[in-house]
Amino acid sequence: MNDRPPRYYTTTGDDGSTGLLGNERVKKYHPQPEAYGAVDEAQTALGMARAVMGDEKAAGVVLQAQRDLYHLMAELAATREAAPQFRRIDAERVRWLEAQTDAYGARIVLPRGFVVSGDSVAGAALDFARTVIRRAERRVVKLYDEGYIENSELIRYLNRLSSLAFVLARYEDALSGRSGVTLAEGGEV
């Protein structure tokens, strides 16, 4: 029996490099770690939002998106040759996001003009997550344009995810009762 406590570090990155899935090492500032790091920030921002959301079903949708982002990060962290074995984000996952966005979008009525973030804690947290998702999307577009990745569904997924975060933010704002966003007739689940 091993009585040694687990180690939470490897020391292999002490030289400023990190390993990709597929036995290649790159500098930590390389575009791939930049991209999957930005996606990890987005996943964490979604977790912060989920922790304060009032609607349990909507929070479950966010949790599923967070799980999808782990698959997305794995593909981003792989060498081009190894990436297909980690591919889980495809057109079907994008359609799932679109369906969620449409379903929650039908539950709200937006006011005229711009919506300013901050009507509810959950809405503000989802808006923050949306901006982090947009940054991650920009990093992934760069990877795609520079030939590091070939799966354009990763870009589409992040693009749709930011739309879902916007709609869920407005939905949470409407649930709070402190917003110009209101629930559509029959909008509350």
What does the model show?
- By secondary structure, the protein is mainly alpha-helical.
- It has one domain: Cobalamin adenosyltransferase-like (Hypothetical Protein Ta1238, Chain: A, Up-down Bundle), CATH 1.20.1200.10.
- Helices cover about 55% and strands about 5% of the residues.
- The strands form two sheets. Strands 1-2 form a two-stranded antiparallel ribbon. Strands 3-4 form a two-stranded antiparallel ribbon.
- Strand 1 and strand 2 form a beta hairpin.
- Helix 2 runs antiparallel to helix 3 and helix 3 packs parallel to helix 5.
Throw out a few tags for this protein.
189 residues, mainly alpha, Hypothetical Protein Ta1238, Chain: A, two-stranded antiparallel ribbon, two-stranded antiparallel sheet, 4 strands, elongated
Describe the SSE topology.
Elements: E1 17-20, E2 24-27, H1 31-52, H2 56-76, H3 91-105, E3 108-109, H4 121-145, H5 153-176, E4 182-183
Antiparallel strand pairs: 1-2, 3-4
Helix pairs in contact: 1-2, 1-4, 2-3, 2-5, 3-5, 4-5
